[in-house]
Structure formats: structure tokens, C-alpha cells
Design a protein that fits this description.
With 92 residues, the protein is α+β, with helices and mostly antiparallel strands. The protein has helices at residues 5-19, 25-32, 36-45, 77-91; strands at residues 52-57, 65-71. The protein has one domain: Arc Repressor Mutant, subunit A (Orthogonal Bundle). The protein contains 4 helices and 2 strands. The protein has a two-stranded antiparallel sheet. Helix 1 crosses helix 4 (77-91).
Length: 92
């Protein structure tokens, strides 16, 4: 099975967000090793897949908070849970 690395990155980020406690951009950067801009681009692309992503505001600063998935849309969460290592390998 071959998967597009760009698509794999999006699926993997969904998996990370669903398995991390209070995932914000700095924490996700630390976990993935991706540059801030790449991470922000992937976050911005998720609604295009039908994924409902919410930013939970905490504090008064605009960037103080974390992301959560409100709805996986058409994505199969159990498949992603079972194949997250494969997604990591596809990303490289």
C-alpha cells in the first residue's frame, strides 16, 4: 500500500491531535520536528478534508490554547489509529 506523503501528514496530524493532551503549535512542532509554517499549513488544510478542527482559547493571548478534533468527517479514525506508524513511514 502506497500513500501520498502530503495526505499521510494530514492523517498523522489528526492522530496526534487526538492523542495529545492540549496540542498546540509549539507542542506539535516538538513532536513532529516540522517547521511552524508546515504545521500551520497542514492544520489549515484539515477542514478541506471534512475534518472539524477547533481551537480552544485559553487565556487572553490569541495563541494561548490548543486544538481538538470535533469531528473526523469522512476519515476512519480506527484505521488511522491502527496505521499511524505506517503514516509516519510514508512521511519520511
Amino acid at each position: 500500500m502506497e500513500i501520498n506523503p502530503v495526505f499521510a501528514r494530514r492523517l498523522y496530524l489528526c492522530w496526534l491531535i487526538s492523542h495529545c493532551e492540549r496540542p498546540n503549535v509549539p507542542h506539535l512542532m516538538e513532536l513532529t520536528g516540522w517547521p511552524r509554517r508546515t504545521l500551520q499549513d497542514v492544520l489549515k488544510a484539515l477542514p478541506g478534508l471534512g475534518v472539524e478542527l477547533q481551537f480552544v482559547q485559553q487565556g487572553i493571548r490569541n495563541n494561548a490554547g490548543y486544538y481538538q478534533l470535533a469531528n473526523w468527517g469522512p476519515l476512519n479514525r480506527s484505521w488511522i489509529d491502527q496505521h499511524h506508524q505506517y503514516l509516519c513511514a510514508a512521511i519520511g
